[in-house]
Amino acid sequence: MGRLIKNHWGRLIILTAAAYQVASAIEGFIWPKVFWDFVSKNLDAAVAPVPVLQILNLIMGLVGIAWEWPLKPLAGSIPHRSIEIRLIIYPLSALLAALLYQGTDPAIYYLIGIGVYFWAYSEGEFSLSAQDIKMPPPVRTDIEPKLEDVPVNKITSFHGRLQQYLHGINAAQETTETQSTSISNQRTDTKDEQTISTIAIPASTSSPSKRRKAATNTMTTKITRSRSSSSQIEPSPKRRRNTPQPAIPITGPTATESALRDTIPENLILLLVGVNPGIMTGITGYVYAHPSNLYWKLLHSSGITPIRHIPADTYKLPELYSVGNTNIVERPTRDASMLTRAEMDAGVPVLEAKVAAQRPEAVCLVGKSIWEAVWRVRHGRGIRKEEFRYGWQGEAENMGRVEGEGGWAGAPVFVATTTSGLAAGMKPVEKEAVWAELGKWVVSRRKEREGLKVEPELSVV
């Protein structure tokens, strides 16, 4: 299953609350009563003789239904697409419902819906009307897709398409090209027949991991035919019907289309290395641009930056603090799990070359998976649990080492925790503790460059 689209969940909850509010307002006309009248009778005038509270609840309930359904004039408008406006209006609806005796249930529903909408807002979502969601065209079933031409991150569910729309992505949709089944004909002269062997038929599966596995396996089939038969053998309709329908490739920005650029000038104190850009980062060109990412918060709390910057300040960090950014993989994806191990390993020598060319004082790998890839390439095996640790690594693991005349011992490596808001393996306090160690060293090096006295215990071990 894909990630939960929280604004749709909030929409359904608010629709329920609004329907309840309309019903409670109508009942309030018949039996006018303020919920809090057992505490004070001061608000009784709001329901009788003039049903002010009932009318307001009826109006707000109808507004909620028209807003969330929505009515045609509202669909796609700024108020309809804005979660911020909802977070201002719906608390008022909840208050009006809570004052009416019959409105207790809609008030509770409103509070839950407001909480869900706030959750969606904190993750950068916005409301999307049904008219904005274009269904993908039907897939032709008379062709076999060429799986090896489909990048791993393009094999996604329909949720992937919705997620791209929610982040304002006008992704170009690609359709699979017509490809006949490849047949390797090996002819053997017999009396009246020839044998065709080794027909590669990739199995279509529903998940990217299974697709990659299926792409490596082939099914060998032997077919006999007479010499007078045609040399081209068409797949049988029965096999085509039994083959699961492939998922439609959904595109995000490619490595060449991504707006993000490396910031690795000479004389850096620290080079921060991420896994790969997210979709929002690839579009905006700013590192860790998603609101749920903790990168900018951890830079500030650790002392690497004295203030909390915003993603738009990405290209200011080298000049202000001698801190640069790059990634081990340039291809943007919705999340790092969509990268293959081969992609990660292929990025290691590229990263080593960048470090060797620009020679920063230290390299920070932002995430355990980057260090695991470096370890696999260097040692030819995966890192064991007892061998892994966050923080500074041994001098033998320095990155970008240059041998020979004019050589360089390489940059010390610091392995930091991931800053992704989706990673729940460590508590925020534990992440801050790891980053604080790096921050102390960066602050000390900055002071040394400015000619200030620093404490000796902050040196790299």
TrEMBL record:
Q: Which residues form the DUF7727 domain?
A: 1-125
Report which superkingdom the organism of origin falls in.
Eukaryota
Known InterPro entries for this protein?
Answer: DUF7727 (IPR056144), MUG/TDG (IPR015637), Uracil-DNA_glycosylase-like (IPR005122), Uracil-DNA_glycosylase-like_sf (IPR036895)
**Keywords, comma-separated and alphabetical:** DNA damage, DNA repair, Hydrolase, Membrane, Transmembrane, Transmembrane helix
Residues covered by region (Disordered) = 174-259
Q: Which residues cross the membrane?
A: 12-31, 51-71, 83-101, 107-124, 268-289
For this protein, the record's Gene3D superfamilies field holds: Uracil-DNA glycosylase-like domain (3.40.470.10)
Q: Where is the signal peptide?
A: none
In this chain the Uracil-DNA glycosylase-like domain maps to 264-438
What are the protein's GO molecular function terms?
pyrimidine-specific mismatch base pair DNA N-glycosylase activity; uracil DNA N-glycosylase activity
Biased composition (Low complexity) is annotated at 195-208
Single GO biological process annotation from the record? base-excision repair, AP site formation
* Protein name in UniProt: Uncharacterized protein
Task: Tell me the organism.
Answer: Penicillium antarcticum
